[in-house]
Amino acid sequence: MSRLSLKKLKKQTEFYVFLIIIALAVFIQIRSGLFFTNNNLVDLLRSMIVPSIYALCALLAFVSTGPDVSFPLIAALSSYLATDIATKMNYKGPVVFVFLIGMFFGMLMGALNGFIIVKYKFPSLIVTLGTSTIFSGILLGAFEAERMDLPESMARFGKQSLLTVVNAKSGLGSTLPMTFIILIILYVIAYLILNFTMVGRGVYALGGDEISAERAGFNVKAIRFGVFVVNGGIAAIGGLCYSIMSMRYLPTEFAGGEMIVIAAVILGGTRMTGGVGTLKGCLLGTLLLTMVSNSLILIGVAVSWQKVFIGAIIIIGTAISALQSRSGAIIKKKIKKEAA
Fold this sequence. Notes:
Blueprint: H1 3-10, H2 13-32, H3 38-64, H4 71-88, H5 96-120, H6 124-142, H7 152-159, E1 161-166, E2 173-177, H8 179-196, H9 198-208, H10 210-215, H11 220-246, H12 258-267, H13 279-295, H14 303-339
Antiparallel strand pairs: 1-2
Helix pairs in contact: 2-13, 3-8, 3-9, 3-11, 3-12, 3-13, 4-5, 4-6, 4-11, 5-6, 5-11, 8-9, 9-11, 12-13, 12-14
Organism: Aequitasia blattaphilus
Keywords: Cell inner membrane, Cell membrane, Membrane, Transmembrane, Transmembrane helix, Transport
Subcellular location: Cell membrane
């Protein structure tokens, strides 16, 4: 590796997150001897699926506009509607139809977010806080959603596994569900769009400088609206994946996870000020917080202390992002002064 590429690597937040992941994994392995066992690694991948899908929503929102905290409730309501409709229809066909129903409702809810934000130029945090409360009220009030068994198509898909492993020493087994393939497909599509299309360039340009993006010919309003519509569809997929992995619909299990997902994305290098963020950062940040949540119990750390670790990581990740934004602003001011 050349010095130039090494210097470039050291400037990336993802590089340091990766080093922290390696150090934490080695530490847990030394203390417990269980981290690198096949069943623990499969459990980690399994636990990452839904948070990583939600992380896409957080990334797209932060990069283009600002925080979106409505995706868990969009996931809850859209997956409820899709599951309920499929159940009442006694649907037994391919599960993709159920996903399409959920995505339709999720995109409608995302469109509501996008319309309010674009039309009235309200802060995305305030808008999505408000709509998430509305969606929660509709779910638990209007529909009186309760725990529900899955229709046959979803249950059949949930029973399928991509990989099954058994720990020879402990006898514990773990399975990697088919929803992992959905995660891979979503990230491949997102990578191709963000890196090789004008729409993807527009998403980053919009978050970097809205006025400059408009002058460059990007349709700022359409891109911003489209981001929230897409976020609604992705959230619906995440909600249905959660239900399928749980083998039942649980309406109260969705709310409350948005802050950890947002923290994971920020920890992975996404700037709160917009314009900067990568998919690999999403995955690395999600992996780190998943490791803290799932693996510290292997070394005897109580659940309450796990929350302390997660809180500390959130503060550190936010501080790093803020410092990077501040240093970037200082550099821009110096360049402008020199140019003048």
